Amino acid sequence: MGKLKLLVVDDEPGIRSGVLRIxxxxxxxxxxxxxxxxxxxxxxxxxxxxxxxxxxxEFDIVLLDNKLPGxxxxxxxxxxxxxxxxxxxVMITSYASLDLxxxxxxxxxxxxxxxPFTPKELRSTIETIAKQLFLRRMTQKLNVEGRQIRxxxxxxLSHELKSPLNAIEGYLKMMQExxxxxxxxxxxxxxxxxxxxxxxxxxxILDMLDFTRIESGRKSRKIEPIMLCEIAQQCxxxxxxxxxxxxxxIYLNCGTKVPMKADRREIEIVLNNLISNAIKYNKxxxxxxxxxxxxxxxxxxxxxxxxxxMKPEDVEKLFEDFVRIKTEETKNISGSGLGLSIVKKIIDxxxxxxxxxxxxxxxxxxxxxxxxxNH
Amino acid sequence: MLKKEKKTxxxxxxxxxxxxxxxxxxxxxxxxxIQAETQKEAESIIERTRPDLAILDLMMESHDTxxxxxxxxxxxYPEVPIIIASAVTAETGMIFDVNTQEDQDWIxxxxxxxxxxxxxxxHKEINKLLKL
Lengths: 375, 132
Fold this sequence. Notes:
The complex is a heterodimer of chains A (375) and B (132). Chain A has 375 residues and is α/β, with parallel strands linked by helices.
């Protein structure tokens, strides 16, 4: 049987002994947990005592009253956050204070129990938390084993491949059943959407090929002297049809030819992904500036666009596998969610780093710094 | 036949095409449809409306959005049946193996379906859950 340690922080002895009594013979079991959990209760009459106990000992759950004689419950919560203590906090509130609720939730309180509480209420809150703790720990374990990542990748990949298939199949069935009318023109929109999804799938497959090449084929790399500006010009030329279609002008600004040593194919993939994003997420009639140069011992690639931009919290997620920023504006833009994660994987091989600046509605710029000495 | 009020079904899915197709199919079955494309949108709908049944996509903003929404709906309307539809349950078992009885108990969805399900099959399942 597993044991969860519960710290009850309240200045009323009645509440503390109540919790003790309620939790004494209580155990939590779930069909999917290997073992049951029961509880060990430790009492703290003040916030100071709680802080002291929390720094010395490990707890799983803290039941925290806010109104305490010395420091307040919310300050104990702050302490827990500052010390990054891994514990689930439940606030005990004597009266419904919306203000406190908002404040405490923002600071990471998991739940609330109103005071006075019935044994049933307390047990049900604790039961939910025990389950949550169990799952969280199981996830951590999986993470350590690195299994979750691979597993997630496969499920997401299968999801990304099946969704367009389902969509296309759905439209074909609607056509087969003549859902929208007798004329082929009645189905124009469905046909357009189907083609759009086919294109999405094609992109995904192409990106997947790049991806697996990077993941597995490191021995086939060919590091040779290249001229960054020449490669960039070729990439831009290849994007002419797309940029003309969207009415976007691409400018190449090269101070020098930027000689460096790299695998040509990898640099092409990096440039292609950055340029294609700058076009895709741009506005009609916008512009893309690709600037290349050398500063000190770094080669620099910078791509600026006048596009839709991103919020800071979206920028953080940008380089993860299969991440796509979902907004009203990106809904109809096809993408695999792999492009920037591929870019990141490649530049990591060169010990290069990438920075992103973005303003929603104004545009984004991506800058890559390649160290030159090692390559 | 007895004339009844139309039941309302909430469909949440971030796939525009799937949502469109499901809406059309479920309206054809004789239900009222409300739809949401994001978790947030769905949450604001359930704030104001109680659907008679909800069909949730599993992977949306994050890979378990469906579970989270399911949890929230069941909290507010414990009696509303929930179907979680996924494109991948069958192949990978997803994050938790939702096909085992134990996990279904925990996740509290009433039914897990693969998105490839035939429409007549889906209709049957909906009727069963709505006790029609």
